[in-house]
Amino acid sequence: MPPMRGPGRNAFLTEEEKANLPSVTPQLLKRVFSYLVPYWKQLLLALGCIIVSSVFSLYPSILTGRIIDEGLIGRNMRALVFLIIASLLVTLASNLIGVLESYLNNWIAQHITFDMRNAMFRHLQSMSQRFFTSSSQGDIITRMTSDIDGVKNTITNTFTSILSNVITLIVALIAMYQKNWVLATLGLLIVPVFTIPTRLAGKTRWTLTRESQALNDEINGILNETLSVSGQTLVKLFCREDSEYERYRTINRRMIDLNVKESMAGRWFRVVLSTVSSVGPMLIYLVGGVLMMKYSSDISVGDITVMVALLGRMYGPVNQLLSFHTEWVRSMALFTRIFDYFDMKPEVENAPDAVIPKAPATGSVEFKDVDFHYDPERQILKKVNFSLRSGNSVAIVGPSGSGKSTLVNLIPRLYDVTGGSVSFDGTDVRKLDLTWLRSQIGVVTQETYLFNGTVRDNLLYARPDATEEDLKSACVRANIWDFISSQPDGLDTVVGNRGLKLSGGEKQRISIARILLKDPALIIFDEATSALDSISEAKIQEAIDPLIESRTSILIAHRLSTILAADEILVVKDGEIVERGTHRNLVEAGGVYTELYNTQFARAMDMGSTEEQK
Ligand code: ATP
Question: 484 with 491: CB under 8 angstroms?
Fold first, then answer.
């Protein structure tokens, strides 16, 4: 099938939609229908229901003719009662079958979106770090929610309404042609003509709805930005309350104007609809009357009434079928957007022959000629070589942006090297089972992430089966137990939105407790750059000590106390290891480390001693 393009047919699409018309290829259709295949039995049943209920729903209109001719004009009471009861029963049956059909329809659509959402969540979880750092969070959420909801509507509405409309039209036309071909042809001609004004009214409404959706998004954006914790802090500190209020008020006003327009357009839409749909029956009465009186055709009053009733039933289906193309393009665009996400390949994947070592991990690490870049234009790491033996610790120091965090991210394979190799326990990390590898490594990141929940929930994330005793002992060792036990709710203290109810130091110590519970073979500690006062520093240090004690560890360090705790110091500058050794050797060498020591570490030490003197 060629791509669906062409002037005129897309008049009801927005400019943006027209610019992004999806190519409807056989592959796309096959893929869309593959989601329906598991539910073919239910689909078949729904199909049967649609056919029966569409035919049944037209029957009362057809019976009207007989009610008039045989019952009323023929003055036959028995026939009248019988036809009325039959008509009522058929309507009831049609409605009941309609209920079953919409149940099946919804059931199928919900199950398909259930499958699709789960598959998408699983797929997104397997995506690499690069995907999350480069995609906007809003885009990811939109695809997971409204795009998939759109697909559900496509299945429940578009597919089924096409089918039932086509069937209704065919049955109505057959019934009309059986009665009188002249009136039937007239009906066939006038229905599409009279749907044009309604479609134009519909288009205006649609444009207004799109505009108000866009405004709504904008309002949500403002609310999100200004009423979030960080946003409000920024607004307050820069005294932007009034200008933010003005921004909100302006857009709110536009929204109100648009809403009024939108509801008036709705009113006009109904006016146009009821006016034009009353012209059609009048024409049928007129032509039918002329045929009956002037040409003494054998057409009866009942036949003309049936024609009018059937014509009335045709407006809806014709209207919907005429806008089918728009619906179809929108649905296909949604499917394409979703499939685009499904087709993205995770950069970091488990090798098909990935191994899970039998022996317990020791945490040793080796970097051999490691090169890395996020973007080919800019090399971040160049020929990095170092090895860390089991049980030892290494401190990585260097100016901000020199590549320290990047370097450690290669060990749990948040990214893969672009040259050279990283080995864990003597095996290239790309050959190890990813889940196994990551479960052997504990990372305390610069920015501690806590889920909104209690301290306990956050700790159990590392080890769901940990006992109360385990939790307490981890907290004691991470030097956070005093704080937790001083809270009225203890371990059940709520940490707030992303842990914002806690101080930076408290969060970090909770995350250290979390790592202690995980008990990994290798610890990576990416120390926060912010300067701490000596009391907080001492508390963090007391928390780090049990963490790295007799365990293989890599410390990205900004404070002298952390650096001194390491067996070896690596100095990274512009993605290269420029110096390595012990603190004493490096200070004596008078290179980059000495410079860092004099500026960064010595200042931190000064701060510490000033605090102590206080
Ligand atoms: P700091 O001490 O300030 O935390 P760092 O030494 O840990 O710095 P990295 O975070 O490793 O530095 O960053 C090294 C370089 O890579 C920086 O110039 C940074 O801009 C760039 N960078 C980091 N993450 C990404 C990313 N996801 N995509 C592209 N570039 C990145």
Answer: yes
Residue 407's nearest CA partner among 431, 372, 436 is 372
Q: Which residues form ligand 1's pocket by a CB distance below 6 Å?
A: 133, 374, 380, 398, 400-406, 529
The listed range with the strongest mean pLDDT (152-156, 160-164, 302-306, 326-330) is 302-306
* 359 SS3 class: coil
* 527: DSSP letter: -
Separation of alpha carbons 477 and 509, rounded Å? 9
Secondary structure, 3-state, 87-152: HHHHHHHHHHHHHHHHHHHHHHHHHHHHHHHHHHHHHHHCCCHHHHHHCCHHHHHHHHHHHHHHHH
CA of 544 to the centre of ligand 1 (A): 24
How much is the pLDDT for 325? 72
Backbone angles phi and psi of 69, in degrees to 5:
-70, -55
Nearest CA owner, ligand 1 atom 9: 403
- 3-state class of 549 per DSSP? coil
Rounded to two decimals, what is the model's pTM? Answer: 0.72
Nearest ligand 1 atom, CA 398: 6
Tell me the two tokens of residue 264.
Answer: 């008036």
On whether the CB atoms of residues 554 and 525 are closer than 8 A, the answer is yes
**Three-point CA angle 410, 343, 334, nearest 5°:** 130
